[in-house]
Amino acid sequence: MIRAAAADAGALAPYAALVAPPARAGERTMWDPLMPPVAGLKLQFHTNWVEPGDCTLSRVERHPYAAQAFLPLDVGRYLVTVFPAAPDGGPERRAAKSFVVPGNRGVIYRQGIWHAGISVLDDPGSFAVLMWRGAPDDDQFADIAPLMIDIPSSR
Q: pTM to 2 decimals?
C-alpha cells in the first residue's frame, strides 16, 4: 500500500507536468514543448467520462512515443499514480508514487512514463485528453501485483 500525497509539481516533475493556470490575466503558460509532434503520428483530441472506482491497481500503461495530457473539464479530485521504469523496462511497483490532484489542475504524463489509468475520487468527472497517436503500440500495458492506494479523506 502507498499513501497518496497532495499534488506537488516538483515531486511529479520526473514523470509528469502539473498544468496550472497563469498567475495573472494576460499571461500565457506554454505547454506545447512537453508535447512535440511525433513523425508519422497525428494529434488526437478527445473527451472522456470517468466514474469513481476502486483504488487498487493491477494494471498500468505507458505511451512510448508521445506525452499524454489530461485536462479536467468537470472534475473534483483525481488520482495520478506513476512508476519509474525497472531495469527490465517494466514498471517498478515498489517505487510507485501517487498524488491527489485538484480538479482545477491538469497533468501531462511524459513520454514513456508508466502510469495508472486516470481515476476520479469523489464524483464522476470528465477530461479533455490530447496525445499523438497512430502507431500499433501507442498503448503498452503491464500487469502488476495489486497495489492499494490510500487516499486522504478530505476534499
A: 0.94
